[in-house]
Amino acid sequence: MIEPTGHSELDALLPRIAAIAGLDADTLEAEQTALLGRKAGLFTTLLRSVADLPIERKRTFGATVNRLKTAAEAAVDARRAALDAAAAQAARRDVDLTMPGRKRAIGGIHPTNAVVDEIVGIFRGLGFSVATGPEIETVWYNFGALNFPPDHPAMDVHDTLYVDAAPAAGEQGDPTLLLRTHTSPVQIRVLQETPPPVRVVMPGMVYRKDPFDPSHAPAFLQIEGLAVDTDITFVDLKATLAHFARSFFGAQTVVRFRPSFFPFTEPSAEMDIQCRLCAGKGCPACKGTGWMEILGCGMVHPNVLASAGLDPEQVSGWAFGMGPQRIAMQRYDIRDIRTLYEGDMRVLEQFR
Ligand code: DAH
Fold this sequence. Notes:
Elements: H1 8-11, H2 14-19, H3 25-36, H4 42-49, H5 55-94, H6 111-125, E1 129-130, E2 136-138, H7 139-142, E3 162-163, E4 177-179, H8 185-193, E5 198-207, E6 219-229, H9 234-249, E7 255-262, E8 265-274, E9 291-300, H10 302-307, E10 316-322, H11 324-332, H12 339-342, H13 345-348
Helix pairs in contact: 3-5, 6-11
The structure holds 3,4-dihydroxyphenylalanine (DAH).
The site of 3,4-dihydroxyphenylalanine has 11 residues, from strand 9 and strand 10.
């Protein structure tokens, strides 16, 4: 409380200064400017008027104006500090420290990728390296270089989308572009770039005009394998692939090789593993056969080595191709391949 000043025009200011303590933030700002503004504030005006006063009033009037000005400044500072403190307090109350924390979803590796990684890892352990090739291929790499004769019926299962784009200049053979139907063309690309000895696995996506049903997908993964060196024989093929089957499916796994046909291998084979559910007796999982097909393989055809610029008299090789999604389905008893494409958390969480 400020005592009456003895100057009636200044006494009128006393209630105004007292009211500062109750102002909200916006009116405080306005009142500060009105009273204390450097250029046009009320106190500046009053102090300027001192000069025109008669000498006997000058001293006490001036001193009183200064005293009230200091009081007003102190009141503004105090009110501002009080408002700031209240705001900080309110902000603190907005944070509810008893609320449960926000759950952070931690992802896992998709079962398909986990199987690819594991298979690639087994071959890495045998000294294989990893290569990839383009998903848009030329007809030559996808078929011609792999010894598919033009219009051969083996191409029927390899129907795919052709890409309507200008082929690159200087391509070998038929440069028409298509979505590759298998990873085998990567064999040619690797052999063109790497002189033997070559030991490589080549994972990647392939495309075919297949329905999207429990056992087919129009886009699926393959892992291709290739070993080319001097004196590679079918024994190397059998031993390596049997080792792979035992590493992946378990040490007791029984394998068998059946004759088959692929244009790019001669001889060609399928490798089966004995059904682990019925131990070969025959059950619904192996469709009563006692065996499950795992991959196709064979000795690299001399024409394929020649396509890649190698001399089939000097080097030989073996190759395989497998579908890691089919393998994941067998291992985890997944009955519908579409499950692997859907991203359904109820399924995927089981593989974390
Ligand atoms: N490329 C074949 C396919 O997609 C799979 C395959 C079979 C690859 C035998 C090979 C192989 O390398 O030797 O049906």
